[in-house]
Write the structure tokens for this entry.
Amino acid sequence: MLHQIAFEPLNHPPASASDIVRLRDTLGQAREAVLARLRANLAAFGDKFPAETCVNGYYPLTENVEWTTSFWTGQLWLAWEMSGEEAFREAARRQVRSFGLRIAGRHDTNTHDLGFLYTLSCVADWRLNASREARGFALQAAEALLERYHPKAQIIQAWGDLDDPEQAGRMIIDCTMNLPLLYWASEQTGDPRFASAARAHVNQSARFLVRPDASTYHTYYMDRLTGEPRFGNTQQGYADDSCWSRGQAWAIYGFLLSFIYTGDKEMVRLSKKVANYFLNRLPEDGVCHWDLALQGTDALRDSSSAAIAVCGLLELVKHLPVSDPDRAVYQAWATHMLSSLNQYYLAKPDDACNGLLKHSVYHLASDKGVDECCSWGDYFYVEALMRASGSWKLYW
């Protein structure tokens, strides 16, 4: 049983009609700016990957390591769909082969982020190009992700060795976005183990990561041996009892993704509740502070959280009946937020940076990626542009 979660009345965005005009006027310009920057980065990056975040405005280049490399590959797939330029498609397909080598050698795969890594690279290739090679790589990744499932606790462990006492039994809100890889694997193979683990995990996330007021913990510990809940805290938020903005944005989008595969309408209701909490704590321009508890302060913004939330809101609108009184308000908020990102956060051609979306915060406490572009912010911004430009078929 899920605990009772509050349903806050939804505030309207500061502007609505003017946002529609502003978005219409800036959308084409933003798309062209994005494609120009991605063309330049494709030439500059070659077969390397950008690191998680920019450093002094520019992405260091890496091999296919860490949890974020697929956000670059995902941008290439989006750019190909947006432009039709074959150079983007060919670059993405070369990177898919890199993901194949990574999973075959189990290089830096000890993470739940296999969902991010293989959905936006290999599953996308399967969906777009019917690549059987990419499908095989993604199914191997799904097997590796399933290994992280603790049957007693009914959760997928986030990071680290499964027997590490510091990490064992830790789930985090981000993992709601990793579950589509498991649902997809069950669809592809007919093996119910993958989807069963995903459903169990999302239900535990709903029970323990979402608080009664519809805010979220970043992380929650379960006893992996007994299955008993232990405690929630944060790794990246302001405090254990605050609400880390990016985690709340993951929740808006991630619970919906489980609904798409399972048909469980409780996931839509939950997405609405966490969305209302998020939207009711935004500053005037609709781009959140890095923690929602810092509303009304001069704390740094996290544009990446806003981009994720825009994608989640635009997906939410698709699954609500026209009779839902909040449906138009969610659409208005998404329009307001994306308009602000286009106008105030998108890097200009003459800016000293090679990312797309400025002013994100990765991990403030460790001074990592603070007030910089980040790879996931760039990806979700481009996804938001694709969504706003017309119909788009999910990679997730």
User: Anything to note?
Assistant: The chain has one domain: 17-389. The chain has a mean pLDDT of 96. The first strand starts at residue 49 and ends at 50.
